[in-house]
Amino acid sequence: MSKLRLGIIGCGWIAPFHVQALNRLSDRVAVVWAADPETERAERIAGSLTTGDAEVLGNYRDGLERVDAVSILVPHHLHHPITLDALQAGCHVLLEKPFALTLEEADDMIAEAEGQGKTLMIALPHRYRKSTQAFRQIIDSGDYGRLFMLDAFMDEDNREYVTGGWFVKKATLGGGVYFSASAHMLDVMLWIAGEVQSVSMVGANAGLPMEGEDTAISIIKFKNGVLGTTRHTWFSPKPHRWYTMRAYCERAVIALTVHPLGKLAVEGVNCAWSSQITVSEAGADEKVLLDSDEGLDLTEEVRHFFDCVESGAKPQTDGQVARQLMKVALDAYRDAEVTGAN
Ligand SMILES: NC(=O)c1ccc[n+]([C@@H]2O[C@H](COP(=O)([O-])OP(=O)(O)OC[C@H]3O[C@@H](n4cnc5c(N)ncnc54)[C@H](O)[C@@H]3O)[C@@H](O)[C@H]2O)c1
Known about the structure:
This protein has 342 residues and is of the alpha/beta class. The chain folds into two domains: 4-124 and 298-317, Rossmann fold, CATH 3.40.50; 126-296 and 329-339, Dihydrodipicolinate Reductase, domain 2 (2-Layer Sandwich). It is 33% helix and 27% strand. The chain has eleven helices and 14 strands. Helix 1 packs across helix 10 and helix 4 (103-116) packs antiparallel against helix 11 (319-339). The radius of gyration is 20 Å and the shape is globular. The model has no long low-confidence stretch (mean pLDDT 97). Bound molecules: nicotinamide-adenine-dinucleotide. Residues 9-14, 35-38, 41, 60, 73-76, 78, 96-97, 123, 125, 180, 296 line the site of nicotinamide-adenine-dinucleotide (NAD).
């Protein structure tokens, strides 16, 4: 089978993580170009690809006709216009989270992908990680009884990441930390527990120079009766564990932790990681079920995108799934606006 011809649109912080995955999948993909108006960034990304010679573009529109698919890794307010451009040019799209700024934008993109008969997948990386998949399998096995609560926490110091530009404005970020990044926990929770019955959130700006909240807590009831909480801060003075999700089952607490061993915001893709799953049962010592160096590895996510493009299958995180997730955050914001909780 011939290789998928792909263009990269947006060559900022997350782009090297996509490059790492694309390089690992070089038997399936030829990256034809990397585009960014800041062309030195595009040059850096093109130079780090091992999937063949990639051209550097200042304007992605100059390359759309020459590729089958694009990875869109740009600020949130550009997700909608750039995705529409790419779909209208006949490209399949892998789009970074969050899907869009509004549900209307999301609906537009879903309709365009359907009309064009192209794959539209939203990059929600955590559910594609091997350790998160193992975490879900352990819960679903029922070995520890019925799940009744999911408790998640992202503990981040983003002082060196959120310094200006599009991150600090609600109009370009779409909100605060809850809209922008708590999706990393919420997507996994919805994937495990299903549809949301109700959600509410509180938020505050603890100190980052941004218009939206940098710290947010939400409580959720799922339709199947499971309870959920998310806590998220971008302003942690000393992160303990970057990502933790605890599943409370009848007979045990199963915990997934994912933790960068260096400074993630600065080291990016070069940062080393530790991922663990532990189980704690009454009267027994904590047991380690999984211990690995898996980090923010996007390989399985990107592989899934390629599989869907090739087979025409619906991606796990298609437009409808990502829209549902976005709606949870927007519903929580609406409620918080009425009560003054954010
Ligand atoms: N999966 C994750 O864990 C994760 C982590 C960080 C960011 N992200 C997502 O990745 C996306 C990008 O975030 P980032 O941190 O890399 O931001 P960034 O600001 O570091 O990079 C964005 C890049 O897009 C470029 N850009 C702007 N307009 C463009 C255009 N018209 N054409 C091409 N490029 C354009 C900018 O010049 C910049 O280089 C966002 O959707 C963000 O939410 C995901």
